[in-house]
C-alpha cells in the first residue's frame, strides 16, 4: 500500500476515532455549490418525498453530489418521511454512474475521500427504514444502476433506456457490494452473466430478468406506480418493516460495516492501477468523441 494511501486511512480513522466512518466526510469536500444538485418535494398529503437528481448533464455521482444525497436521506429520516422516490430531472439519463473524473488521474487521497463518501451514502440509501422506489426515467449505467438497485422497488420507463453494471467494459471491477445488490434482484446466475460481460439491458430485458419490477411508458406513470408501491405499506407497522428490511439486506449491510476500509483500500489500488487508468482514458475519449 503506498504511503499516501496509508496516510489517508490514518487521517480518516483519526477524524472519526473508529474503524467505521459514519456519515459523509463533509470537511473534506470542496466549498458546496449553492445551487442544489438534488431537489426534494414532499407531498403534504401522503408525506412521500420525490427526490429528483438534478446535476446536469448526466447526474454523475461525485463527492459533492453524494454528500448532498447523504444529507437528504438523513433529513428525510429525521422528518419521518413516509416514502422516498428517486428520479431524475433529465429526460434521458437517470444517472451516468460514478463521475469518472473523480477516478481518472486523481490523487489517491482524493479517490479515498470520494469512495468513502460513496460507501456512506450508499449505505444510508440501502438500509434506510423509509420505503424507497427508483423511478428510472433514463439510462442507468454502473453507479446509476447501483442507486436503483439500492431502492426496494424499480419502475422503469421503456423501451428506449438501458440499465446495468457495465464496469468490466471500462476495464474496472464492480466491488462486492454492487454485486450483492445485483444478486439480490436477479440471482447469482444472471449476476455472473451480466457482470462478467458488463451487459447493459434494455428496459424489457431488465424486466425479464427481474432487474426492474415494472415497465411504464413515461415519467408520470413511473411516479404514479412508485406512489402505489409506497401506499402498500400504509398499514404495516414501520418498525417491523424497517427491521425486516434490515434482515433481508443483512449481507450488504454487514459487508459494508465490516469491510469498509478494506473495500476502500482495494478501490484505490484498483482504480489507480495503470490498466484501470488506461481503460478510463479510452472510455472518456470515446464519450467525448460521441458527444462532439
Ligand atoms: C474500481 C472501480 C469501481 C467502480 C464502480 C463503478 C463505476 C462507475 O459507475 S463508472 C461510470 C460508468 N458510467 C458509464 O459507463 C456511463 C457513461 N456515459 C454514457 O454512457 C452516456 O453519457 C449516457 C448514456 C449516460 C448519456 O448519454 P448522452 O445523453 O448522449 O450524454 P453524453 O454521453 O454526451 O455525456 C454528456 C457529458 O457527460 C460526460 N459523462 C458522461 N458520463 C460520465 C461519467 N460517468 N463520468 C464523467 N463524465 C461523464 C460526457 O463525457 C459528456 O461530457 P462533455 O463531452 O464534456 O459534454
Automatic annotation (TrEMBL):
GO cellular component, one term: mitochondrial matrix
GO biological process: fatty acid beta-oxidation
Sorted UniProt keywords: Acetylation, Fatty acid metabolism, Isomerase, Lipid metabolism, Mitochondrion, Transit peptide
Metabolic or biological pathway: Lipid metabolism; fatty acid beta-oxidation
Record's catalysed reaction(s): (3Z)-decenoyl-CoA = (2E)-decenoyl-CoA; (2E)-tetradecenoyl-CoA = (3Z)-tetradecenoyl-CoA; (3Z)-octenoyl-CoA = (2E)-octenoyl-CoA; (3Z)-dodecenoyl-CoA = (2E)-dodecenoyl-CoA
Major localisation: mitochondrion
Pfam families with a match to the protein in the record: ECH_1
GO molecular function: delta(3)-delta(2)-enoyl-CoA isomerase activity
Subcellular location: Mitochondrion matrix
Protein task: Key enzyme of fatty acid beta-oxidation. Able to isomerize both 3-cis (3Z) and 3-trans (3E) double bonds into the 2-trans (2E) form in a range of enoyl-CoA species, with a preference for (3Z)-enoyl-CoAs over (3E)-enoyl-CoAs. The catalytic efficiency of this enzyme is not affected by the fatty acyl chain length.
Self-association and partners: Homotrimer.
Official protein name in the record: Enoyl-CoA delta isomerase 1, mitochondrial
Organism (species): Megalurothrips usitatus (bean blossom thrips)
Lineage per the UniProt record: Eukaryota, Metazoa, Ecdysozoa, Arthropoda, Hexapoda
